[in-house]
Design brief:
By secondary structure, the chain is of the alpha/beta class. The chain has a domain of 184 residues: TIM Barrel, CATH 3.20.20.80. It contains twelve helices and seven strands. A four-stranded parallel sheet has the order 1-2-3-4. It has a three-stranded parallel sheet with strand order 5-6-7, with helices on one face. Helix 1 runs parallel beside helix 3. The chain starts with a helix and ends with a helix.
């Protein structure tokens, strides 16, 4: 929905400010959004838009993390299938459509723009949909079903199997590339939800620290980068740890297991990041200090989100409006 001039100006602004790695949505969120690529008559317009992102990245010396399935349900909704088909049936429309999309995009950019690809990412926060009852967003006016059913349910084992297929595609198409899962911090109850998947009622008991780490490992199995998205919310206060302390704990645990972490999203919304009395105000500084301290164990971190008009009243940061936050982030870049 944004024109190239706006996209280019925003990328230039980020690069000039010292931010050289940009994670972005490389597919539509809703089925209707994704139609530009699905429809062969409009596909050249899609490629023209995506080409411009990579071309501008080359111009401004930026590396990209294309998140390939920004909303994983988009692919099954385009095929009018439930999620179980994508996860369990390699002959399904949605599975083949997903493979076709990954193949087309990676083949198009992996060689020509190899120096501008920081990593590939399977998608955005797929792990928050696993082991639930009737997961997935609904917006029928945007092409989704009017409701989800039990056929949309999938297990951790299903997700691991699907992820292994996608990893094999990426590694065969771009062997030198790193791959991120794109996962968020697991749900507080993720381990218990997994164990109770086949029960009549899901178990929403909060996980122990050991169960949390076990879930992190299992959900990110096979990936070069163990992805986590972490915000200073109530959900991130766990085990008597603050959100930033939880992140440091997670980094320590992954280090012991020789796993490299990637902080795919973190940030502070308005008005808290402008309010020094807010308990969230120092979160960005705390996280950046952890990144600097653990530079060999955390490959990188992406703040959510740079100059995004849809979130002007919450998470979007802009030079001139959020200079305190930007200076904190730059302090991490300078190390």
């Amino acid at each position: 929905m944004w024109n190239r001039n706006r996209s280019r100006a925003s990328m230039k602004s980020a690069s000039t400010s010292g931010f050289k790695v940009i994670r972005f949505a490389a597919s539509g969120y809703w089925p209707l959004d994704h139609q530009m690529w699905i429809n062969e008559t409009t596909r050249p317009l899609f490629y023209s838009a995506l080409d411009s992102v990579f071309e501008d990245a080359s111009t401004f010396n930026v590396q990209l993390i294309p998140s390939m399935m920004w909303q994983v349900f988009t692919f099954v909704d385009v095929c009018n299938e439930p999620m179980s088909q994508l996860m369990r049936n390699t002959s399904s429309c949605s599975f083949n459509l997903t493979q076709k999309y990954f193949t087309a995009i990676i083949e198009r950019y992996a060689t020509k723009f190899s120096k501008n690809i920081y990593a590939w990412e399977i998608g955005n926060e797929l792990n928050l949909e696993v082991d639930l009852s009737n997961p997935g967003p609904v917006a029928s006016q945007m092409g989704t079903p009017t409701k989800r059913t039990s056929l949309d349910n999938f297990t951790t084992a299903d997700m691991q199997s699907f992820q292994s297929h996608v990893l094999s595609w990426i590694h065969s198409l771009h062997p030198a590339a790193k791959v991120s899962s794109g996962h968020a911090i697991p749900r507080q109850e993720a381990w218990h939800l997994r164990q109770s998947y086949y029960n009549k009622h899901r178990d929403w008991t909060h996980d122990t620290q050991q169960q949390y780490i076990e879930t992190m490992i299992d959900q990110n199995k096979g990936f070069d980068l163990v992805s986590v998205h972490l915000y200073p919310s109530i959900d991130s206060h766990r085990f008597n740890l603050s959100p930033s302390e939880l992140f440091q704990y997670t980094v320590n645990q992954m280090k012991q297991r020789n796993r490299t972490m990637f902080l795919g999203e973190f940030g502070v919304p308005l008005p808290d990041r402008h309010n020094k009395s807010s308990p969230m105000y120092d979160f960005t500084k705390e996280m950046v200090e952890i990144i600097i301290k653990n530079e060999h164990d955390v490959l990188g971190a992406n703040y959510w989100i740079w100059e995004f008009p849809n979130q002007n009243d919450s998470f979007s940061i802009y030079p001139g409006l959020d200079d305190d936050t930007i200076r904190v982030l730059q302090s991490g870049n300078s190390e």
